[in-house]
Design goal:
Layout (H helix, E strand, L loop, with lengths): L9 H9 L29 H19 L8 E10 L18 H18 L1 E10 L6 H9 L4 E5 L2 H11 L5 E4 L16 E3 L4 H14 L4 E7 L2 H17 L2 E8 L11 H13 L7 E5 L19 E3 L4 E3 L10 H12 L5 H20 L4 H8 L27 E4 L4 E5 L27
Parallel strand pairs: 1-2, 1-3, 3-4, 4-5, 6-7, 6-8, 8-9
Antiparallel strand pairs: 10-11, 11-12
Helix pairs in contact: 3-10, 4-5, 6-7, 10-11
């Protein structure tokens, strides 16, 4: 019902008109001006409802100035995920890689990015390419590039990471290595268009070494597998021993002779074999296993000749993530992953999640889907990603490796987290893990 205005005559209406200009706005206020001009006043003859009318019109003008129309086309960020199917040959059935390994982490991070993106008019999507053993990653890469994809998260062998990086470079695409731990990818074979998300072997080795030194377990008995990856991991442990003042009292190589790893007779053979294999070693504090291919390390705990802890590839393991990790709010991330995928989040899942979150966070900061803008933001001093590991994760500008704490786990819980107390650094204690700036061989180009 309209308000009754008894006694309103021609003079009152004229008084209201004196307070408004020809556009119906308060005098002295231009279109969409965000605040009233102090010279404006309602004519002394106006009644109160007329003043309210004028203020209402002014408020509409202010609202029109502040509220901008939403962009019809949100900023679309497409991310290609290229990853290998990992071997299902493991010592324990609990370690068999899931069918959706790696991609599951990227998908959950995509949902996280889209949650924020709805407020910023941004959308994120994934193009997935899971490769069979021996399949060339360049073919799906070219298809994705032709489709406008300019960000790639990869879990590939080191030679394939380099091939993808070199093929993606002419288009200006940015590659996130979330799998290969090889130090050479961060050092002599580094690429300017590759961000390394997962920790390197040297970072994992240093993370474990710091804890062993903190525990005063300085004498190591190193057992190395016969595969090339095992040799590279052993070299990382040798470097850590020299760096932190530990001593490798003896090295032995465990030859992979093939055969079933979970056969019915296996437990009897292992129980007889492992004590004999580890006997007559010099006095040592821990047995350190370098076994990336999971051939023998899982058989060592409780089966060594001498009663000593097993660390490295079994027992106490250095990892980027573990399904048992629950510190610093990680339980909420673990719970969401469990709810979505009906299993725990492993290290590969988490590294894919971190890579996708790096893209999303940088896109939110820069409001851009340009790879160069994202790259520059990731390397800027103010960037840090929260990842439930006790401190923000940042990118080293000398080799583009993501700084991160290393979790030490027995598979039941997080035993400790490195860097350890007392290991100091002039810039960041995280730079005590892996190759530091003065040691780097990387020349980004």
């Amino acid at each position: 019902m309209p308000l009754a205005t008894p006694g309103l005559g021609h003079d009152a209406k004229a008084g209201l008109c004196k307070g408004l200009d020809e556009k119906g706005l308060p005098r002295g206020m231009s279109t969409f001006q965000p605040k009233l001009n102090r010279s404006f006043h309602v004519s002394p003859g106006c009644h109160s409802w007329q003043a309210l009318c004028a203020l209402f019109i002014a408020a509409l003008a202010l609202l029109a100035a502040v509220v901008q129309p939403a962009d019809a086309d949100p900023l679309a960020v497409k991310v290609g995920v290229i990853h290998l199917a990992h071997s299902r040959e493991t010592i324990s059935i609990l370690d068999i890689p899931p069918a959706d390994g790696f991609i599951a982490g990227a998908r959950m991070a995509m949902d996280d990015n889209n949650t924020t993106g709805r407020f910023l008019d941004q959308s994120f999507s994934i193009v997935d390419a899971k490769l069979a053993p021996g399949e060339d990653p360049i073919a799906p890469l070219k298809e994705m590039l032709a489709d406008g994809v300019r960000f790639f998260i990869v879990d590939l062998a080191p030679a394939e990471v380099l091939a993808v990086a070199d093929a993606a470079r002419p288009s200006g695409a940015l590659v996130f290595n979330a799998g290969a731990p090889d130090d050479r990818l961060r050092e002599e074979d580094c690429r300017a268009n590759v961000i390394h998300v997962g920790p390197s072997r040297s970072m994992l080795a240093d993370g474990l070494a710091e804890y062993l030194i903190w525990k005063q377990w300085r004498r190591w008995f190193l057992v190395v597998g016969s595969h090339p990856e095992d040799q590279l991991l052993a070299e990382a442990y040798r470097r850590s021993a020299k760096k932190f003042g530990a001593k490798i009292v003896e090295e032995r190589v465990y030859q992979d002779t093939g055969g079933g790893r979970r056969s019915d007779s296996g437990s009897v053979q292992v129980q007889r074999q492992m004590p004999v294999f580890t006997q007559n070693a010099p006095n040592y504090d821990v047995l350190l296993a370098a076994d990336e291919n999971e051939v023998f390390a899982g058989y060592l705990p409780y089966r060594t000749w001498d009663p000593r802890p097993v660390v490295g590839s079994a027992g106490l393991r250095p990892v980027s993530w573990d399904p048992s990790h629950e510190f610093w709010g990680a339980v909420q991330l673990q719970s969401r992953f469990q709810r979505l995928f009906k299993r725990g989040m492993n290290a590969r899942d988490n590294q894919a999640w971190v890579a996708m979150r790096l893209i999303g966070d940088a896109a939110a900061h820069t409001k851009s889907a340009d790879p160069k803008a994202i790259h520059d933001d990731l390397l800027s001093p103010g960037f840090a990603l929260g990842a439930f590991k006790g401190q923000g994760l940042t990118v080293r500008d000398w080799n583009q490796q993501l700084r991160q704490p290393i979790l030490l786990t027995d598979g039941r819980g997080t035993v400790s987290v490195s860097p350890q107390e007392g290991f100091l650094h002039q810039t960041s204690t995280l730079d005590t893990l892996g190759f530091d700036r003065p040691e780097t061989k990387c020349k980004l180009q």
